[in-house]
Amino acid sequence: MLKAMMTKTLAAAVLAMGLNVACASPVDELTDLLSGHDAAKATFTQFALSGDGVKAEDSSGHFVVARPNRFRWVTEAPFLQEIVSDGDYIWIHDPDLEQVTRKPATGQNNSAPAMILNGQIKQLSERFSIERIDRNEGGTALYELKPLDAENSTFTRIRLLFDQERISELSMEDSLGQRSMLVLHDLEYDPELEAGVFEFIPPEGADVILDPGQ
To answer: What are residue 151's phi and psi, to 5 degrees?
Structure first.
């Protein structure tokens, strides 16, 4: 669950744009940083940390994301998995299992990942406190989001690290203290997109599961 939410959140956050936000409030800064570019692509490494700091579940791959609500997220190691959103449906393809799960992309617009994706930082600030907790002359900035209603939130803390006004790391922590960490490499904004990059056709012979998403 946390890993799937992490994927959506990263796909949202990598659309950060580089603007001069030095004099703005944290909410205004994130509004500028998380709205502006129409698409992005990068490679990534991802890992989980347990509550006692033990590292586990290393994975790596690449992704491309575009507004509104479209992305292709490919995990290459330790096993292959594709998660594709065409804006209408989210497709999860597990080649090793010969299985595809399809669920609606709609109905998730009130989640924190969706609000970040759509640049709805003002609405996000109604559910999360947003603070800039670190800044330095080297060009890095760390933002922390904490839910105002912790009992009904999936995450107890979300942190976004920007380097030269580009998202470079993201972490999400749940109520058990487990953290999912993502590190981006070779981030490119507004790349030329291949035709059909957000289309998905289930491979022949795959078992297709239709999840109503309710």
So the answer is: -65, -25
Closest C-alpha among 195, 150, 144, 198 to residue 174: 150
Task: Convert the pLDDT of each residue in 13-45 to its tens digit.
Answer: 555 434 344 457 888 888 888 777 788 899 999
- Compute the mean pLDDT over every residue in the chain, rounded to the nearest whole number: 83
| Residue-wise pLDDT tens digits, 64-86 | 988 878 899 999 999 999 999 99
Check: CB of residue 27 under 8 Å from CB of residue 130: yes
Assess whether the previous peptide bond of 68 is cis (omega < 30° from 0): yes
Give the SS3 label for residue 4: helix
Q: What pairing do the DSSP bridges indicate for beta strands 81-86 and 179-189?
A: unpaired
Residues 97, 4, 54, CA angle at the centre, nearest 5°? 95
Token digits for 167? Answer: 């998202």
The pTM of this model reads 0.80
